# Entry
Amino acid sequence: MAISADVLASALQDLAPGYSETFMKWHPLFEKLIGRGGIQTENLEGPYKQFTVVSQGPGSTTEIVYGSELVKGGRKQVASSGTAYAPRLIHAFDVPRKELDEANGAQDLAKILEKYPELAMGEFHEQIGAQLALGAGANNLGGFPTLNGGVGDVSSGTTYNPGGIGARNGLLEQALPAAQAGVVHGLDKATVTGWENQYGDTTSGALEDVRRAMREIYYRCQRQGKTRGKVDLILADEASYHNYLEDLDTYVQVASVTDEHTPADIRQGIKFMDATMWLEDHIDITSSALTGKPGANGLMYFLNSKTFHAYTLSHEGGGGYFKTSGPFRIPEQDLFRYEIILYMGLYCDQLRANGVLTGSGIGFGTTP
# Structure
C-alpha cells in the first residue's frame, strides 16, 4: 500500500521535537545552551532583540572616614544596549512521489524518514555550523552570526547580514584587544570600554609555547568573566586538535551526544583545564575566509557558553523553531517538497569572557 505525502508530513510533525533536539545537540555550543535553558522560544513577537551589555563593573566604592562623604554609588555608567536580529532560514528537500507510491507499510516509511528528513536535518546543521565557524555566507546562510570577527567585507567571512538589515561584524577578532575595531551587535569596540575579546598568537611551533598560550587565553577569559564563570568549550581546527591530542600521554575522550537519532561518535572532545576542546571541521584554515589572517596558521575559539544566548520566533516549539511545512507538489515534476523552518538569533553579551588563539597549527605536536 502506497504512503501518501500527507502521511509523511504528519510523521514529520510528530518527529519535529526530536529532530530539533538532535539538531541543537549536534553542536557543542548549542548543546551547552540547551543544557542551561539558554534558548528562548516563547513570547517573542519579532526578529529584532535588544539586550543589555554591562562591559565592566557597574559600581563604585567610597571610603568613609568622617561619615559626611558623598557615596559614589550609581555614578558609573557602563551599561550599553546591544541588538540582535534573527534571520529566517528555510531548508527545503524533495521526496519523489514514485518512492512514496512504492512504499509499503511502517518499515518503508521509516526508511524514507531516514533517507530524506533526517539527512536534510543533518545537512542543515552542517551549513549553520560552517557559517558560525568562518562566515562568508556559504549555503545562503549569510544572515546567521559568525564567530569569525574583524573588519572586512563579506568575502573575508567577517560579516553577516541578518534579514537584509546591513552587514554586521562577526563576534571574535583575531587581534589584541587594543587593536580591535569592529562593531559587534551594534556596539563599537573603539568606544565601549571592555567590549572586546581576548586574543593570543603563537608562531614558534614549540609544544610548551602553545600550551602556555592556551593557558594564558583560558585564564584571561576567566578573570574577565568573573561571576559569569570560565571558558567551558574550545572549538579548534583539525590540525590544532589532532596535534594537541597526539601530544597527550593520557587523555579523556567524551561523546557529546546521546540522543537516539544521533550517533554517539559524531563529535568527541578532550579536556583542557575545565573546558572541553572540540574538533570543529568547519574551521578550515585553508579557507579564503582566513586568507591573510593569523588564523590561517591554526585557530581556536575559547568560548564561555554562559555569555551566549539564542532566541527563536516561536511559541511552544511552533512558528520558527524547526517548524515543518508541506507537502507542496513541484510543478511539472513528480516530486513533493517539504520545508524545515528555523527563525533563530544568536548573540553574546560579554565578549571579554571569550577569546581567540591563532598559530596553534604550526608544528604543534613536534618535539622542540
Summary: Residues 5-25 form the longest helix (21 residues). The chain is about 25% helix and 25% strand.
